[in-house]
Specification:
Layout lengths: L1 H23 L16 H12 L16 H16 L10 H13 L4
């Protein structure tokens, strides 16, 4: 009888140890794309982006409203310059930079 108790005790604590070790090896991961229907346009977009442009990060946009270009050009230039020199941003495609070059070239306007 005593031997059976020892066997049950050893088996129980062995299983406990295996389960504790297994729980420490679990990896937690969440990706909201998993919940999109695979035939949706958004899912296909993310799949194509990951296939053709791996590791390029995500696009971001800055939207503005009620901006008067004639009075806010200096502030817009400051924002673009800060974004272009930010160490974590790798590629900036600001329309303002092209506009500024065009205006300087064709109209001789300085900053």
């Amino acid at each position: 009888m005593f031997v059976l108790q020892i066997v049950v005790f050893l088996f129980t604590f062995t299983m406990l140890g295996v389960n504790i070790w297994g729980n420490t090896e679990l990896r937690q991961e969440f990706n909201p794309i998993w919940f999109l229907p695979q035939d949706s346009y958004l899912f296909q977009y993310f799949a194509a982006r990951d296939k053709f442009f791996p590791g390029r990060g995500d696009e971001g946009f800055i939207l503005m409203q009620n901006v008067s270009l004639s009075t806010h050009l200096k502030q817009l230039d400051t924002v673009v310059q800060k974004l272009e020199t930010h160490p974590q941003l790798h590629e900036i495609e600001a329309w303002y930079s092209d506009f500024k070059n065009y205006a300087n070239k064709n109209f001789g306007k300085g900053d």
